[in-house]
Write a structure and sequence with these properties.
This protein is mostly beta strands. The chain is built from three helices and 16 strands. The strands form five sheets. The chain has a four-stranded antiparallel beta sheet. The radius of gyration is 28 Å and the shape is elongated.
Length: about 260
């Protein structure tokens, strides 16, 4: 937009200088570009999706298409490695995911100002589909990886063997016939097996040349999730002699906790 500014004689500036003659200047402002970003930065895990609203922030956009992709379970490790600090890069969805659908939104008109529009996730997510999803929008400055699952899992090292327990996230009921895949830090498949009637599966010693176990991926019907694996020696140390002892005059209780 074009602007013309005029300063009349007699105007005094901050330094006391008085304008003796009329001064005129013209300038043109540049157009504020369109902008879109997916809200909830840093929040990637939604245990329950029902009734949830996802904020989409826009500026100078007449309409925006919000797109939903689902990461293929077999691409999970490679996809997570490709996402920098959990943020998918450009082209992430086309390379690692399946397209599930989109929803067009019309933001409120407020020129050159940020506007927030809430998207109902129940309308965007297909019924029954769970797993790791990627949410993006036109010109988006930040797509989001979203984990929405009904699967819970625990992993326990027994020497060189790995035991995995898979259960319903809310009822804790064991999930039989869930497929568990173990991948190495070199993205190699180290083992694959189905859980038994108690939701348990055990993997024997792994081939070291393929890399150390890094991620366990569990698939059950139309749902999947993952768990990053860490051996005991990679965790904090257990109880040691130089740690403080229980002082009954100071504490009501003193507990050292450790986990596998």
């Amino acid at each position: 937009q074009d602007y013309k500014v005029s300063v009349v004689p007699g105007f005094e500036d901050n330094e006391g200088v008085i304008v003796r003659e009329p001064v005129t200047a013209s300038f043109k402002t540049s157009k504020v570009p369109g902008y879109v970003t997916v809200g909830m930065s840093g929040e990637n895990y939604f245990p329950r999706r029902n009734g949830m609203k996802l904020p989409i922030e826009t500026r100078n956009m007449d309409s925006v298409d919000v797109r939903l992709h689902r990461l293929f379970p077999s691409n999970l490790l490679a996809g997570l490695n490709a996402a920098k600090k959990g943020v998918p890069a450009q082209g992430f969805s086309d390379q690692w995911c399946e397209f599930l659908g989109s929803k067009s939104i019309v933001p409120e008109k407020n020129p050159d100002r940020l506007v927030q529009t809430l998207v109902d996730l129940d309308e965007l997510f297909p019924q029954g589909k769970r797993g790791v999803f990627c949410l993006s929008a036109d010109l988006s400055q930040g797509a989001r990886l979203v984990l929405w699952t009904n699967i819970g899992m625990l992993a326990h090292w027994q020497g060189e063997d790995l035991v995995v327990f898979v259960h319903d996230l809310y009822s804790l009921t064991p999930l039989p016939q869930a497929r568990v895949s173990i991948y190495s830090h070199k993205s190699q498949l180290l083992g694959m097996a189905a859980t038994d009637g108690g939701g348990m599966v055990q993997f024997g010693r792994f081939v070291n040349s393929l890399g150390h176990p890094s991620v366990a991926v569990v698939e059950h019907k139309d749902d999947f999730t993952f768990l990053e694996l860490a051996r005991r020696e990679d965790d904090s140390r257990a109880f040691a002699k130089d740690m403080s002892w229980y002082d009954r005059s100071t504490y009501d209780a003193f507990i050292y906790a450790d986990r596998d």
